[in-house]
Amino acid sequence: MSDLAEQPALDGSGFARLAMVTIDCADPVALAAFYGDLLGWETRHADEHFAILDNPEGGSPLAFGRVTGYRPEPWTEPDGGKHFHLDFYVDDLDEATAKALALGATEPTYQHGRTLKVLIDPAGHPFGLAPLS
User: Is the pLDDT of residue 10 over 60?
Assistant: First the structure.
């Protein structure tokens, strides 16, 4: 029996449980390594087609799937579109930004102007870092 099937029954407010979030990319192993280092999560599985990071807090894992012909989202301009983005709380915004940049993230010139720092992961997906307090 799978771990998902062994989870407690739903509370009646919905009929589904989030099993996993999968992010499309050209190189699942590289993107899993980036987010694994960013979050401190362990890799459960990685091959040229798919990679999974386990959430050490017991929540849903984060996965990465290869898409042939993958192109980054055009979010780097103020009027660009995006399909999704991830936001993360951090203790120190400047320190976390520097660490993410050292891992291979880039910083677009356009920012929202709030306390959220928008960065771009190595596959071109935007993500946000926000101070915890």
Answer: no
Q: How does pLDDT run across 28-47, given as a tens digit for each residue?
A: 999 999 999 999 999 999 99
Q: What are the residue boundaries of the structural domains of the chain, listed by start?
A: 1-71, 72-133
Identity of the residue numbered 16: A
**How many helices (H) and strands (E) would you count in the chain?**
2, 7
Which CATH code is given to the segment(s) 72-133?
Answer: 3.10.180.10
CATH code for residues 1-71: 3.30.720.120
Per-residue pLDDT of 88-123, as tens digits, reads 999 999 999 999 999 999 998 888 767 889 999 999
Task: Tell me the pLDDT band of 84, cut-offs 50, 70 and 90.
Answer: confident
Question: In sequence order, what are the residues at sequence separation of 6 or more whose Cβ sits closer than 8 angstroms to the Cβ of residue 62?
Answer: 20, 21, 23, 35, 39, 41, 52, 53, 55
- Strand stretches in the chain, DSSP E: 21-25, 42-46, 50-54, 62-66, 86-90, 117-120, 126-131
Query: Residue 59, by phi and psi: left (phi above 0), alpha (psi -120 to 50) or beta?
Result: beta
